[in-house]
Amino acid sequence: MEVRFAMHPSQFKTLTTEQIRKEFLIENLFEYGKINMVYTHVDRVIVGGAVPTVEVLVLEDGKEIGAQYFLERREIGIINIGGKGYVVADGQKFELDKKDGLYVGMSTKKLEFGSDDPSNPAKFYFVSTPAHKQYLTEKIDIKQTEATHLGSLSESNERTIYKYIHPDGVKSCQLVMGMTILEPNNVWNTMPCHLHDRRMEVYFYFDMPDDAVVFHFMGEPGETRHIIVRNEQAVISPSWSIHSGVGTKSYTFVWAMAGENQSYSDVNPVSMKDLR
Fold first, then answer.
1. Which residues contact 244 (CB under 8 A, 6 or more apart)?
2. What sign does the CA torsion over 211, 233, 104, 255 have?
3. Given this structure, which CATH class describes domain 2-265?
4. Phi/psi at 48 (nearest 5 deg)?
5. Annotated binding site
6. d(Cα 258, Cα 195) in Å, to the nearest integer?
7. How far is 219 from 240, CA to CA, in rounded Å?
8. DSSP 132-174
9. Binding annotation for Zn(2+)
10. Which of 55, 155, 236, 268 is most buried, most CB within 10 Å of its CB?
11. Tell me: the pLDDT tens digits for 39-87?
12. What are the UniProt keywords, alphabetically (predicted)?
């Protein structure tokens, strides 16, 4: 588990391209037969990827969280972006097709990841946050999630937002999680952009061809920076930063938030004229 620390926006302005990438970009989440994780001190969120092949992978605790087991004081949201697979939570098995999700509540002692076909393994992307109460573990079928269609082709941002974990759906302590799928020939997300001072966010981009990239914009509205993001990479976005992107081709991304509240609409809009 890699550990990263929080940063003040005044320090962010001084960073080079490589320093920004090192602090905020997560490049190597998925390795066959492994679980990789990044612990960020921004709201103590853990971002991870698991790719089980022949052997089942078990999510272990670590000294970084100081717990007897991983979910002793945490909750976790999981979305499969690969082949068919399954997650076993304290002996209960959940089958997950591509883009299906799973919420696992606090106090779950054992979490295992498996693939139906090792030659086409599942890829489990997950985000974990601290928790104070146990909520029910629940599978999330993308076809049964709340879906909101937004944007237009003329604005290059026609997309559908699927809410997986939120107060009106699968409930959690503080984790809010979902997926946005851009229509073909659309490339912009979260523009016009906004801030939410009370929540951080993690963006995970996937379903991108090898020759495509996303320019993910971050920083304070009056002094922005960008990170080049490739397929199956994630970006940590602190609460003081915008989080918007444009791709060379259409793509899909998972968004996950944690912080003071779970209100999806609790945002501070940023006027286009204020962007620099």
1. 188, 189, 190, 191, 193, 216, 217
2. negative
3. mainly beta
4. -150, 170
5. 194, 196, 201, 243
6. 14
7. 7
8. SS----EEE-GGGSEEEEE--GGGT--EEEEEEESTTSB--SS
9. 194, 196, 201, 243
10. 236
11. 999 999 999 999 999 999 999 988 889 999 999 999 999 999 999 999 9
12. Isomerase, Metal-binding, Zinc
